[in-house]
Automatic annotation (TrEMBL):
The record marks K76 as: Lowers pKa of active site Tyr. Pfam families: Aldo_ket_red (PF00248). Belongs to the aldo/keto reductase family. InterPro entries: AKR, AKR5G, Aldo/ket_reductase_CS, NAD(P)_OxRdtase_dom_sf, NADP_OxRdtase_dom. Keywords: NADP, Oxidoreductase. PROSITE patterns: ALDOKETO_REDUCTASE_1 (PS00798), ALDOKETO_REDUCTASE_2 (PS00062), ALDOKETO_REDUCTASE_3 (PS00063). Substrate binds at H109. GO terms for molecular function: oxidoreductase activity, acting on the CH-OH group of donors, NAD or NADP as acceptor. The active site is at Y51 (proton donor). Residues 28-258 form the NADP-dependent oxidoreductase domain. It comes from the Bacteria. This is Aldo/keto reductase.
Length: 273
């Protein structure tokens, strides 16, 4: 189980640590990544229809021999599929590619203006029909969440956001916690740029761990779900080897204070859909 799950607001257990597969190539690359991760004890895989690798993710899970019900499988509805009917169709297509008949978590990938409420209604219905064990959003700022919850029947169980030492967004984390929305970090390694920071090199040396392990540990100690990505077997294994040390409170704070509102991905308010 790679040391622990959070219980979402609806009682479903979500493993804190998962494997991200954005830009993992469909075919051998993603199949192997998923297999190596499951072998190493990961039980949570994060994909999306736009990653164009759901077929390989499904194949990796099957070939791993780990029973489907032991894997927390996440996918997302893409921007061009927003709207009630097209979301239902996109969901069915994802299931088909993944070779499964349910998802553990389905997310609205981005808050497409004027459309995400209809999309959310589709997710609510799929959830009520027990096709999805939990539903959530991604890249929703506080105003998006407030706007959605204003009419939603079900409060999103998860908000998956860009989150790393240069983009902490503590106010949004606090808002989510208050509303029982689990915060999840995408690009926790700053898409590779974290490895250039001197402060990370210093911390890695201090704890005798890698930079990736320091930042994954930082997420976990703050109670955030995190999904570092790698396609290399040794890194997939190492990135999850974070349960034999603890960051001091001072060092947790030190990383929190690196915040400089710097994004490596799009701005949810200015995404050219
Ligand atoms: P990341 O921050 O996880 O960084 C991944 C990169 O870091 C890899 O390509 C690799 O080059 C490098 N790396 C990984 N482990 C390493 C190690 N031990 N040593 C040296 N280099 C290492 O980047 P990401 O893939 O953008 O984010 C993680 C996951 O988050 C994605 O795969 C995807 O599942 C999800 N995501 C979601 C959204 C969204 O809009 N919801 C957007 C981006 C990513």
């Amino acid at each position: 189980d790679l040391k622990g799950s959070v219980t979402l607001s609806n009682g479903v257990a979500m493993p804190y640590l998962g494997l991200g597969v954005y830009l993992s190539e469909e075919g051998k690359e993603v199949v192997n990544s998923v297999k190596w991760a499951l072998e190493a004890g990961y039980r949570h895989i994060d994909t999306a229809s736009i990653y164009k690798n759901e077929t390989g993710v499904g194949k990796g899970i099957k070939e791993s021999g780990v029973p489907r019900e032991e894997v927390f499988l996440v996918s997302k509805v893409w921007n061009s599929d927003h709207g009630y009917d097209s979301t239902i169709q996109a969901f069915e297509n994802s299931l088909k590619r993944l070779g499964t008949d349910y998802l553990d978590l389905y997310l609205i990938h981005w808050p497409v203006k004027g459309k995400y409420k209809e999309t959310w209604r589709a997710l609510e219905d799929l959830y009520k029909q027990k096709r999805i064990r939990a539903i959530g959003v991604s890249n929703f700022l506080q105003h998006h969440l407030e706007d959605l919850m204003d009419q939603a029947e079900i409060v999103p169980m998860v908000n998956q956001m860009e989150c790393h030492p240069y983009l902490v967004q503590q106010d949004l984390i606090d808002f989510c916690r208050k509303n029982t929305i689990q915060y999840e970090c995408w690009s926790p390694l700053m898409q590779g740029k974290i490895f250039e920071l001197d402060v990370m090199k210093t911390l890695a040396q201090k704890y005798g761990k890698t930079i990736a392990q320091i930042v994954v540990r930082w997420d976990l100690q703050k109670g955030l779900v995190t999904i570092p990505k790698s396609t290399k077997k040794d890194r997939i294994i190492a990135n999850a080897n974070v349960f034999d040390f603890e960051l001091s409170q001072d060092d947790v704070q030190l990383l929190n204070q690196l915040e400089r509102s710097e994004r490596f991905g799009p701005d949810p308010d200015n995404f050219d859909f």
